[in-house]
Each structure stands twice: as C-alpha cells, then as structure tokens.
Amino acid sequence: MLILNKTAGVFSKPSRRKPYEFLRSFNFYPGKLFLHKLVLGIETSCDDTAAAVVDETGNVLGEAIHSQTEVHLKTGGIVPPVAQQLHRENIQRIVQEAVSASKVSPSELSAIATTVKPGLALSLGVGLSFSLQLVHQLKKPFIPIHHMEAHALTIRLLNKVEFPFLVLLISGGHCLLALVRGVSDFLLLGKSLDIAPGDMLDKVARRLSLIKHPECSTMSGGKAIEHLAKQGNKLHFDIKPPMQRAKNCDFSFSGLQHVTDKIIMQKEKEEGIQKGQILSSAAHIAAAVQHTIACHIAKRTHGAILFCKQRHLLSQSNAVLVVSGGVASNLYIRKALEIVTSATKCTLLCPPPRLCTDNGIMIAWNGIERLRAGVGVLHNTEGIRYEPKCPLGVDISEEVGEAAIKVPRLKMEI
C-alpha cells in the first residue's frame, strides 16, 4: 500500500484507559488448565490492528483483526496519522476479542509478543505503548518482534520445516531474500534497492485509476492488478525486467514503474483521454507489469538458490523455499516461482493467503519460537523502543554479488 506523507488533523486524541480497567473486562476460566506455553501476539506495524493467542504446539486459540483497507483506499494510500488513530481506536477491542475467544485468562499467558520493527513509526508506537502497559500490569515477559522474522517463521506453525531454509519476503513495504539458519539467525542475500513490489503494484493501479473500474473498486492495488491481468495479454507491451546483467540477488522496481508510467501517458495521448480515466488497454498493461515483476522476482530467487547450494548453505536434494508477505498471495508470481523450484529441485512452501498478510498469529508464533529458544525474552522493558527501519540478519549481499552466479534462462510459460 502506498504511504502518503501528509498530516491529517481529522481525529481528536483518544482518552487513555488505565490497564486495570481493560483487564476487568475479561471473562476468566478458572476450571481450564493450560499445560502449554501461551503467547499473546500484537501487530500494528502498518495498517492492520491484529492480535492472537497461540500455544507452543501451533494451536491458534483466539484471533482478531481490524483492517483499515477501506479507509486508505479512499485516500489512495496510507496516511500515517490516520493509521495511528485507527490503531488507537481499535487495539483494546481487538486484543480483548482475541484473548476472550481463546478462553485464556490474561494471568495464564506465558508472555506478550509485539511487533516493534520495522514499520510505520506512528503505528508501531501504538502497539508498543499498549503492550508495555499490559506487560507491566500482568507482570509477564515481553518479546519484541521483528516483523520480517515473523513472516519468515510463520511456515513452521503449519509445516515441519527444519533449519536452514531460504525465504523470499515480498510485500507492500519489503522485498528480500534471506537464509534462515535459526529462530534469530538470518543471512540477508538480497533486498530491494528502492521500492517494494507491492508498493509498485499499488502505484500502477492508482495511476491506472483502477479504483474507478467496476470490477476493482473494492480491491487493493495489488489485487486489482492481478484480477485485471487475467483479461489482458502479457506480451502486448514489451517491458524488460530490470537488472538483467546484475549478478547479485538484489531487486529494483522503481525503473519498472517509471517505464510503466511512460506507457500509460503514451496510451492516454493515443486514446485521447485525461489522466484519471480508464484506458482500454488497462488489462494489457496490468498483465505486462505483473509478468515482468514475476520474471524479475523469479530470476533473483533462482540466483539465491544456486548461491546457497554452491556454498553448501542449503541441502542439494531437499532444499526448501518459503515465500511469504502480502505479494506472496499473488498466484501468478507463485507460478513463476514454481518454475524455479522445479528446475532447482526445491520444495516451494507458502502460508495460506490470510497468513501471508499482516496478522497477530505470526507475531504470537514468533513469540513461541523465541520463548522455546530462550532468545530475546525480556523481563525488564526499560529502554525498549520501536525501530521504523531495521535490517534483517547479517547482510552478505556483497559476497553474493562477488560470487557472480550464472543463472540459466528458464521459460516462463505461466
């Protein structure tokens, strides 16, 4: 989702409820005995307010989420102060719904895990502030969570995936390839040098005014592009994938967006329509853009797999590629990645779409993973801060580039 850096003075500052008033609203279940570790996860890194209670066996005992998508569709992107206010208005209710649904009393929780990095500063602040009040009141350990780490580990909630494995995280705010060697042990192989693929898809959808398209008016930009692309010809426009000569595993999408903008401007002139009207060739543009993004992501991922196998960082016979993040729900991009994993004899695993986008379950599960490993579990929260920008793991992308892995060309017949 596009981030709009403008202020919005349309909301009044909310009243702050004391934590004990919040806790008094819960129903308690004194006769129920929980033998497993239980973690409450809280997520407010962008525009979704989410919470969940998960146990150490992977059972989701309760969850709740409030999406801000409809609000931000009207403004054409996320306005951070608006997102902040909506988090403030909904976080208490969402956490209460998740805990109540779990039939766990707050005193039975083993810990509280919350996203503290990376994300929108104003949004992260709401989740952290609320969580610290709760931690103080309940006297529970606090587990600060890296949003990308949570996405990467979600698959282990659903499948028996052993370390190490390769992860591709693609969303509206992130694009990276990393080798996951442990719960908090990541080697960063490549990342976007500019914008994220989801951000680009949103911007193209906005430039095509797809919110005015009768079939796409309630969809996010990425979903609108995927839907419309099914009706278009991906070869109608010749758009070259970026960084074709680069030997590393980094990504770039801003140049592709610039090329697409020029195509749209040219077609508007040819069709004699104003900016903001729907082009007759919109479906062809959507198809070409989606195909080019898919090919770019697939090639960089192919290179990462080959690098890891060459350096014996991944198994030669049963390597696993995990793909997560909001853009991972795009089925066309998944099919492109299936071609790569088939050629490299890897297993492709993706969480279900509802766990690819931001949610409280992945935060709670990351808390469980850290609790079991004894990593990053805080009993003193003094000095804890949110971090809007924070890299994941140890960056070895230069080493990947120096290896200059030759990536064979694959036929992307999707």
TrEMBL record:
The terms describing its cellular component in GO are:
mitochondrion
Q: Which cofactor does it need?
A: a divalent metal cation
Entries under CDD domains matching the protein:
ASKHA_NBD_OSGEPL1_QRI7_euk
Give the main localization category: mitochondrion
Q: Which EC class does it fall in?
A: transferase
Q: What is this enzyme's EC?
A: 2.3.1.234
Tell where it localizes: Mitochondrion
Which family does this protein fall into? Belongs to the KAE1 / TsaD family.
According to its UniProt entry, what is the function of this protein? Required for the formation of a threonylcarbamoyl group on adenosine at position 37 (t(6)A37) in mitochondrial tRNAs that read codons beginning with adenine. Probably involved in the transfer of the threonylcarbamoyl moiety of threonylcarbamoyl-AMP (TC-AMP) to the N6 group of A37. Involved in mitochondrial genome maintenance.
Q: What is this protein called?
A: N(6)-L-threonylcarbamoyladenine synthase
Give the source species. Answer: Odobenus rosmarus divergens
